[in-house]
Amino acid sequence: MSYGQQAGERLADKVVLLTGASAGIGYATAKELAQVTSKVKLILTARRKEKLDQLAKVLTSEHSGIRIHVAELDVSNLDSFEPFLKGLPEEFADIDVLINNAGLALGRESVGEIDRKDMITMFQTNVFGTIELTQQVLPIMKKKNSGTILNLGSIAGKDYYAQGSIYCQTKSSIHVFSDVLRKELISTRIRVMEVQPGNVRTEFSNVRYRGDAQKADDVYKGTEPLTADDVAELIVFNLTRRENTVIAESLIFANNQASSHHIYRKE
Predict the structure, then answer these.
(1) Per the confidence metrics, is the pTM higher than 0.90?
(2) 247: nearest Cα among 181, 193, 167
(3) Which of the following is catalytic: 14, 31, 41, 171?
(4) How far is 34 from 121, CA to CA, in rounded Å?
(5) Most exposed of 67, 83, 155, 191 (fewest Cβ within 10 Å)?
(6) Which one-letter DSSP state was computed for residue 263?
(7) pLDDT tens per residue across span 166-196
(8) 183 part of the active site
(9) Distance between CA 22 and CA 51 in Å, rounded?
(10) Does an H or E element contain 24, and which?
(11) Is 171 known to be catalytic?
(12) DSSP notation for 178-228
């Protein structure tokens, strides 16, 4: 059996819940999952349902037999998770894989100048949303003693930088949460993984700089950053290892990056 066939078999008929699937790493991950096997059952969520509908249309046209459920979900709204999960069609209710991908950064202000609304939004989305959705899904996995929880961390959660205090804190929280959850589930067959990307060219910087295209472009100037597809390939590789194999942490850089601060830029 080839690598591709083996990976596909390990995801066949699995229900995968993916947050933030309308763009960037989430969008690429949905496409990569479908590429590995058309037998996977995808629950695609994001705030922009029209983008999810477009993605579902693309995937169903390219992969015959794939099953997809799309739902509008704002992970910063913690009260939305219970009704969302209870409202899932029976075919999608028994979740096998949770990918906590949704997240964002807002601004590059120094401490003392940080907008309170931005601070709250980042913690609500990146931290509280991940924790609460995991708490809601975990009983489903515990009942069958199997499953995988994969959280999107960041190099920012390990290597902190000025004007990034809140975002770095949120991703550090994801790292701590993942580590503790893995220890708490050590007696189960539930895996906990964290993928920590470095510099990736997505909508991330456009959102951080509130639509200022020049500032967003400057983040990647003189570099060849990772693409969303690069990260998606790693996510799906991790998910398709043997059930007894846990790739606990994966730090992924472009070739020109060695830390948050060490990025080589061509003149």
Answers:
(1) yes
(2) 193
(3) 171
(4) 31
(5) 83
(6) B
(7) 999 999 999 999 999 999 999 999 999 999 9
(8) no
(9) 5
(10) helix 24-36
(11) yes
(12) HHHHHHHTTTSSEEEEEEEE-SEESSHHHHHTTT-HHHHHHHHTT---EEH
- Report the Cα 144 to chain-centroid distance in Å: 24
Task: Pick left, alpha or beta for residue 65 (phi over 0 → left; psi -120 to 50 → alpha; otherwise beta).
Answer: left
Torsion (CA) 237, 240, 246, 248 in degrees, nearest 10: 30
Evaluate whether 198 touches 254 at the Cβ level (below 8 Å): yes
Run of H or E residues at 175: helix 165-184
Phi (first) and psi of residue 150, to 5 degrees: -120, 120
Catalytic residue among 167, 183, 221, 264: 167
Half-sphere exposure of 200 (CA within 13 A, CB side): 27
What would the two tokens of residue 237 be?
Answer: 């590789």
Percent of the chain whose pLDDT exceeds 70: 98
SS3 content of the chain, % helix, strand, coil (to 5): 45, 15, 35
d(CA 7, CA 117): 42
Cα-flanking dihedrals φ and ψ of residue 153, to 5°? -95, -145
